Amino acid sequence: MDDDSALIAELAQVALVSVAPDELMIFDETAEEYFTDPEAALTASGRDAAVGFGLELAMITPIALSVGSAVMQAVVGHLAGRALDAGQTGLAALARRVFKRPAQQPDLTLTTAQAQQVRATAFERARALGLPDAQAHLLADSFVGAIATAG
Amino acid sequence: MTTRLRPNVLAHPSPTTGRFLLLVAALASAGLLTGSSFYTITHQAEFSAAMKTCLAAIRGPEATSTEEMLARAALVTECLAPQQRLDAIYSLAGAVAIGVLGLIVMLFVPMVLRRRRRLRPAGPNMAAAVARVGELAAETGLRRAPTVMVGPMGHRDAFVFGLPGRYQIVLPMALMVRWRNSELFDPVVRHEIAHLRRHDVLMAWLAASVWLAAPAIFAVLLVPLMLRLDASFILQYSWRMGLLIGLVWLVRRQLLRSREHDADLHVARQMRDWRPLWRVLSATAAHSQVSWRRWISNHPGAAHRQQVLVDPATGPGVSFVDGLVAAFLAGLLFPVLVRAVGAVTDFNLAPIVAALATGPLLGLAVGAGLWRQALIDHAAGTRRWPGGAVIGVVTGLLLAYFTEFASIIGDDAPVSWPTIALTVVVGAGAVLLSASTGRLWADAAAGLPAGRTTWTIGVVVNALFFGIAIWLLGFLPVYLDVFTTAGVGLAYPLVILGAIVAPIAYLAIIPAVVTMYALVARRKKADVPAWLIDSAHTGIADVARKPGLGAVLACSVAAGLVAAAGVLMHRFAVGPPVDDTDSLSRYLVWLSAGTLVALAVSFASVVMIPRSGGAIGLVAGAVTAITAGLFIVSINTFGFGNILDLKFWWTTTLAITAQWFLGYLLILPLALVTWFAPWRDVPGWLHTTVSLTAAVTTATLVAGVAIAASG
């Protein structure tokens, strides 16, 4: 798992604490499977197969990881200018500095408006991936909370 | 007020079992037919040469009598026996090949499934969930818990697979991690374990495996067809096989759908509450289905499953497709079996053996299903219409007629409209006879033995009903053709009908006795038996209890006497016969009087008594026909001093009964019209009055017409 993926996983893991704590016990293997083939992890296989209960029970973890990717991109987008000024080029490094910002770099904090935009992005992605509204809200809030509390 | 109880639909043989048998029979038939067609294509020249030799052996002046014609036909059959045996061997080889290939595929299915779906045993981090599966399996009574497997994240459904003793349950990760959520986890796992408990895993996967194996066998036939480079042969074979495959596909999907309902109800019964599973189904994605998808999907829609959980009486009964496929297969298999059995044993016995082999197919898939529905309706206070099954069976038999595989090579025989009419009448009649008798049987539920004994009787009776129907369809068209070709008129076939029908008449005694027993047992006024319901409380079902057996028998015997009186009236009016031709026409008056009076009595029962009228008409008509025959020959012997010939007595009585039965099949579809009539009981005096009025009117008309014709 590369640095970018590791950071997304870290962020998703924090968000899952409130959204789907049960899934944390298999988080590592789920994350690994997701990063190997994100599309497959997010798509249901064998619908209306010859045998089966007829369930359509999806894990939240791949959705959280996908939302995590979108959140990362949004955050990087907001802070790209300031990152260049600060001499950071890597996405992971930049994000790490947002989420685990040292005290001497207060300028890398998200504004309230930016945080709201990040939340909206997270919510939209979660909804697009089929998460019900209530869970999508919770997941989006968890991500914003994870960003806010990560430092 | 109607008594509505929650029926225990699991107390009866499941429709899934019937459908599985249908599927196996369908695929075996496909094998038989492929083998037979292979023989026809590869040995066509050899067969033609044998046929020429055999026909040369009987060449000579034209046959002067029907007996001589039949003797010559028997000679040709005997001469062709080696070819027929070869045909039978090829047919059997085709069926065995599909079966063996299917079993091989089934052995490899678990391995392929694990690889294709990337399944793996649940890891140690899911040990708690695995332990919970073990607990639930033990609660259900499974001796050995299935191995718990998980798949990739895209896998979101639960299912079971594997071979006996090595079953595996596959659960989605999302469910495994929620094992503490018993409202979600337990019902789903219990449902999958119910599949194991009900032994339908092997059934479903065997069906899937044979389905996968079958195309390989079908393709084998294409090789010699291609070598012949004749597109018409390929076309003839392909559309027939396409039809068969299409029907197999439909029934396979029906099987998969009905097993889901069975497993759902099993869980509800086990948990003594249907609500937990109902709530899980509320949350599933495929909540409802558009109507056409219900016919082709692998799963019933969640909304339908919920409905069946709440009211099991709304679950799947005998459908149009069941009737269609079962009748199609029976109709298709019968001639193949006649040829195969005839090649190795007495050719005259072959149709009876073939009918006894194909009858159970329809008896189980359609007849037993209708009896099951009748017992469910008995507890639930419903009255489901058997029209779908009737139409399905008739359509299936007609399809089989048009699909006769023997005509793949050579000219198609011209369409015979009398055969088509007979097919419709006999097919519909047999289904309604089964449905009506099932109703009568259900009315007597309080006095019946529980469970297996009742079901064994049901299966035997229905196998006989449909066996007789198939035999009639195999023999009647040929019988009519022979006599039409011979130009002997109607009299001779009617006279010898009794002798031909005799072997089957003995078999008909069993359903008749069972029906009479039900007529007695339904008089008992008691609660719906516990084995038929799925609730703590019971009650007395609203069933028909009148007329009783005594009234029906008395009325029928009186009607038989009326028929004999009509014959006597004719005799007094026209005097003794003057020559053999006159004697023969008198004999036809006997047969007509007995037959038509018996039909009038049956007609009265079918019209007056909704639902079980068909069964009561069976008893009333049969007793009338038999007593009419006996009274008529008794008067002839003891009243007019003719010789006492018991064989003549027997064949006369049988001829009347056989004619009545054929006519009765024509009347039976009326039961569909009266099915929903609101009344239940018809007092014995009313039934007797109407029946006897009909009998007297009919006997008078027959005698009057006969007297007028003599004058």
Automatic annotation (TrEMBL), chain B:
<dbReference type="InterPro" id="IPR001915">
    <property type="entry name" value="Peptidase_M48"/>
</dbReference>
<feature type="transmembrane region" description="Helical">
    <location>
        <begin position="233"/>
        <end position="251"/>
    </location>
</feature>
<feature type="transmembrane region" description="Helical">
    <location>
        <begin position="616"/>
        <end position="638"/>
    </location>
</feature>
<dbReference type="GO" id="GO:0006508">
    <property type="term" value="P:proteolysis"/>
</dbReference>
<feature type="transmembrane region" description="Helical">
    <location>
        <begin position="20"/>
        <end position="41"/>
    </location>
</feature>
<keyword id="KW-0812">Transmembrane</keyword>
<feature type="transmembrane region" description="Helical">
    <location>
        <begin position="549"/>
        <end position="568"/>
    </location>
</feature>
<protein>
    <recommendedName>
        <fullName>Peptidase M48 domain-containing protein</fullName>
    </recommendedName>
</protein>
<feature type="transmembrane region" description="Helical">
    <location>
        <begin position="383"/>
        <end position="403"/>
    </location>
</feature>
<feature type="transmembrane region" description="Helical">
    <location>
        <begin position="588"/>
        <end position="609"/>
    </location>
</feature>
<dbReference type="GO" id="GO:0046872">
    <property type="term" value="F:metal ion binding"/>
</dbReference>
<keyword id="KW-1133">Transmembrane helix</keyword>
<feature type="transmembrane region" description="Helical">
    <location>
        <begin position="349"/>
        <end position="371"/>
    </location>
</feature>
<keyword id="KW-0378">Hydrolase</keyword>
<dbReference type="GO" id="GO:0004222">
    <property type="term" value="F:metalloendopeptidase activity"/>
</dbReference>
<keyword id="KW-0479">Metal-binding</keyword>
<feature type="transmembrane region" description="Helical">
    <location>
        <begin position="415"/>
        <end position="435"/>
    </location>
</feature>
<keyword id="KW-0482">Metalloprotease</keyword>
<dbReference type="Pfam" id="PF01435">
    <property type="entry name" value="Peptidase_M48"/>
</dbReference>
<feature type="transmembrane region" description="Helical">
    <location>
        <begin position="689"/>
        <end position="709"/>
    </location>
</feature>
<feature type="transmembrane region" description="Helical">
    <location>
        <begin position="492"/>
        <end position="520"/>
    </location>
</feature>
<feature type="transmembrane region" description="Helical">
    <location>
        <begin position="658"/>
        <end position="677"/>
    </location>
</feature>
<keyword id="KW-0862">Zinc</keyword>
<feature type="transmembrane region" description="Helical">
    <location>
        <begin position="88"/>
        <end position="113"/>
    </location>
</feature>
<feature type="domain" description="Peptidase M48">
    <location>
        <begin position="132"/>
        <end position="310"/>
    </location>
</feature>
<keyword id="KW-0472">Membrane</keyword>
<feature type="transmembrane region" description="Helical">
    <location>
        <begin position="455"/>
        <end position="480"/>
    </location>
</feature>
<feature type="transmembrane region" description="Helical">
    <location>
        <begin position="202"/>
        <end position="227"/>
    </location>
</feature>
<keyword id="KW-0645">Protease</keyword>
<feature type="transmembrane region" description="Helical">
    <location>
        <begin position="324"/>
        <end position="343"/>
    </location>
</feature>
